UniProtKB/TrEMBL annotation:
Organism, as annotated: Paenibacillus artemisiicola
Protein known as: Phosphoesterase
Amino acid sequence: MGRTFFISDHHFGHKHIIDFESRPFANAEEMDETMIAKWNAVVGEGDKVFHLGDFSFLNRDRTQAIVERLNGYKHLILGNHDRGRGRQWWLDAGFDEASEHPIIYKDFFFLSHEPMYMNRHMPYVNVHGHIHGQKYEGVHHFNVCVEHWDYTPLTFEQIRDAVVPGEEQA
């Protein structure tokens, strides 16, 4: 595998998210096409993407058509808007992996949709989505919602370097 990326809360096909989150798009079609282009501009075929939930509001065929257009090996951690469809639905829609629960990445990063409770004595970082334009202060949370990152997936190194001082050379 090549590089590893993280992103969340695309809400493909969800026209109301444009108003809810003040997204700069005229309609859902423009939003979807822009987000697909931004994903493919940074993610290559040999890369892996952890999508931290709330991927699509579309039916399975239309969701699958989007998943097929996105580069990389795609691992979905189900978000609150994804869970009603179940893990198998997302696998059938084209994700390579789908997790119903948070996972631990590199023994240090908790990957989840909703932010997890992290007290100040914990050395870990929670990489999450769900809260869109909001942001938690401090070093224990890293919000990868599309609104914070110009609708573009972030590399693991971008996240690591932002939350673990002195790790840039690792």
